[in-house]
Design goal:
Elements lengths: L2 E5 L3 H13 L3 E5 L2 H7 L7 E5 L7 H15 L6 E5 L4 H9 L4 E4 L4 H12 L6 H6 L5
Parallel strand pairs: 1-2, 1-3, 3-4, 4-5
Length: about 140
Amino acid sequence: MANIWVVDDDLFYRKIISEELKECGHDVMTLDNGMNLSLLLEENRPDLLILDVFMAQKSGVDLLEDLNRKTEDRGELRIPVIVITSDDSEETELAAREGKADYFMLKPFPKKKISEVVNHLLKGGGCAKSLKEHDPWRF
């Protein structure tokens, strides 16, 4: 199915997200920091990215801004991005929104929720009313 990259410094979340998406038939690569992501994006391109907000070296929001800039400079199509975080502050949500994240998800979340959102975004769903009704953090 799709090639999905998960970038999170928390091994627990990398593992549960990876297992769930692999069960759905996706190819999943996990990374524990944003510096590795920046290097890999020079040569490869996932179908979808899942980024944690707070990581050492580089935050998920900074990575998202870098990705948007590189994508625009190269004239490439945007990669759908899900931002995950345990920070429920308005500032973090606003930063993800301004960074053009496709979905904002608070930790902890049900394991099945990640596959539901991923599959929706891969189908080109954008902002779905059905997801929005069930998830007040969806924008």
